[in-house]
UniProtKB/TrEMBL annotation, chains A, B:
Keywords, ordered alphabetically: Metal-binding, Zinc
Descriptive protein name: carbonic anhydrase
InterPro entries according to UniProt: Carbonic_anhydrase (IPR001765), Carbonic_anhydrase_sf (IPR036874)
Naturally occurring in which organism (per UniProt): Actinoplanes lutulentus
Cofactor: Zn(2+)
Catalytic activity: hydrogencarbonate + H(+) = CO2 + H2O
Keyword Zinc-finger among UniProt keywords: no
Cited function: Catalyzes the reversible hydration of carbon dioxide to form bicarbonate.
A molecular function (GO) term: zinc ion binding
Cofactor note: Binds 1 zinc ion per subunit.
Residues that coordinate or bind Zn(2+): 39, 41, 92, 95
EC number(s) from the headed UniProt entry: 4.2.1.1
Pfam families assigned: Pro_CA (PF00484)
Enzyme class: lyase
Length: 166, 166
């Protein structure tokens, strides 16, 4: 008996997805002209929450749903080359980023590996404040052309509800 | 008659999602101990393709599904703080990143905005080679502890199939 990795299990799912696939003629630009930036958290499913399906929206994700240089790059490409005009940011309750500090995380890594990571870990102590911080980083970026709809939310992993941060 | 933005439409979907939500007791660490890094492309739905549901896996996404400092940050957090041990990379056919060059894109922006973006746009001319490049960047990173299963794929947006890059 060979042991199957989780990746192998997921690849079996992928074969099933392809077997009934009928969306082969979708265009490259997102139909809804929206880019979503959300935390990578396993419980936060942007497709389920926002009712998105294949072809609808760009989905950008990372630890925290924060805005760093790479998200500004992705958003610039999304708007300039592929026509999106609205941005939706989603953080969530019970986020891992609330459980540590940049200094502590990087000191732990340095102790183990002998090298201190050259990046900011982007941990944050306050969800609402970090959503506002993310919005501000986008509004302040000179390379994203359309900023008329940049809205931020906190998703509650216990109730499934989105709450807008104003 | 008031005009509704697409964001408002998606928020109406979010209310429907919350109304039947029954997954409020999922733990923070991903059940399948997998992190997926995929392109932000609208046609590439990692939940559909891999058969993932809420609670299963971290999902990290950006323009191209490339590995930059922010993806290394997210993967380090995913493994070190939240216990994932396998990594799945997904690029796809008909990717926007195949349609331009870093130099051209940045020159266009500089001409319009007067500032040249300080980031690499991460455009690539060859899908398979960029999947291998992304795998190598992960294998070379000193802060990601577990690299026994780092596998890369190209998703075909016309057939719905995944092809592994070896």
């Amino acid at each position: 008996m060979t042991s199957m990795s989780v990746t192998d299990e997921l690849l079996a799912n992928a074969e099933r997805y392809a077997a009934t696939f009928d969306k082969g003629d979708l265009p490259l630009p997102p139909a809804k002209r929206v880019a979503v930036l959300a935390c990578m958290d396993a419980r936060l499913n942007p497709y389920g929450i926002l009712g998105l399906t294949e072809g609808d929206a760009h989905v950008i994700r990372n630890a925290g749903g924060v805005v760093t240089a790479d998200e500004l790059r992705s958003l610039a490409i999304s708007q300039r080359l592929l026509g999106t005009v609205e941005i939706i940011l989603i953080h969530h309750t019970d986020c891992g980023m609330l459980t540590f500090t940049d200094d502590g995380f990087k000191a732990d890594i340095e102790r183990e590996v002998g090298i201190k990571p050259p990046w900011s870990a982007e941990a944050f102590p306050d969800l609402d404040a970090d959503v506002r911080q993310s919005i501000r980083r986008i509004l302040d970026d000179p390379f994203i052309p359309t900023k008329t709809s940049v809205r931020g939310f906190v998703y509650d992993v216990q109730t499934g509800k989105l709450r807008e941060i104003l």
